[in-house]
Each structure stands twice: as C-alpha cells, then as structure tokens.
Give the backbone structure.
Amino acid sequence: MIIERLSQEHSNIEKLLAILERELEVFDRGDRPDYEVIRAIISYFEVYTEVYHHPQEELVFAKLRTRDPCAAAKIGDLAQEHRGGVERLRGVAQAVDSVLADREVLRRNVDAVVRDFITRERRHMQTEDRDLFPAALKALKPQDWTEIASALTARKDPLFSDVTEERFDVLRQHILLLEQEAEAERR
C-alpha cells in the first residue's frame, strides 16, 4: 500500500533526523562530528526525499484535492512545504560546507540552521501522518490508488532496502551501530 510505504519512509527519515541531531550535539559541545555521516544524510535528502518521496506524496495530495477539497485545504500547500524543505536543506549543506572550509561562522548560527531543519521536517511529517494520510485513505477511491501506483517509480529506498547504494554504506553502517547500541542499553 502506498500510504504504508510513505509512513515507513517517514520512520526512516526520522532515524536520519535523530542521527543528525546527535551529530549536532557533538558539534555544539565543541567536538568534531562525523561529517561523512552528515554529508550522507544531506545527500539522502537531496536524492531520495526530493526525487522520489515528495513527488509520491504530491500525487496523493493532488488526488485528495479532487476528492476532498476541504481536507486538502486543511493541509495547505504541500508542494510549497516541500520547496521550503529543499531551501532549508540547502542552508544546512552551506553551513556544513562553511565549517569544513574553515570559514568564519558562528557555532550558534550553524546550530540554528540545522536545528530549524530538523524541527520543521519533523513537524512537516507529523502533519502528513496526522492529516494527509488518513484523509487520503478515507477519500480516495480504488481507481485513484491505481492511478497513483501507475505513476510511481518502483525505485527502492537507497538506504533502507537490501539494494543499498554504495554512497550510503557509511550511513547505513552508522544507523545499524546506533540501533545495536540502543538495543544493548535496553537490556
């Protein structure tokens, strides 16, 4: 089901936001975060969320707008929200590049840019999970889902599938390590 896949992708994205948040805490303490992991997260957002995830949500939203304009109006301008996320991500990438290039940049400014991205991405996904997905499940007809499915790419998530792209290997290993650490703490 399309909504189940989008919800799973939100769970995956949340894992990345949590890792980015941990790396930001390392940076805020004055230590050196894992910039390879941070760059991989940025790349993931640029590649997967922008090219595959968001267009799928926008197809669902377009059908919802036709079937239930009131529900769609409550959600707002989804495409604009996604464009705002792209701009915030670009700001994160620029802040990281500035730090790595040893440019004069205030630590609190880097923190503010990255923290704003994390907070707003989480808020955006909560809105979709709370409003868009249930409204779509309620309003869309079987032929709508068929049309959406036929327009979607069969591309698997390059990070959270068994066919991972090489450039995400470091990030995938980092996620697995964090999950193992969390499991060990629970015992």
Observations:
- The domain at 2-186 is CATH 1.20.120.520 (Four Helix Bundle (Hemerythrin (Met), subunit A)).
- The mean pLDDT is 88.
- Residues 156 and 162 are 9 Å apart (CA to CA).
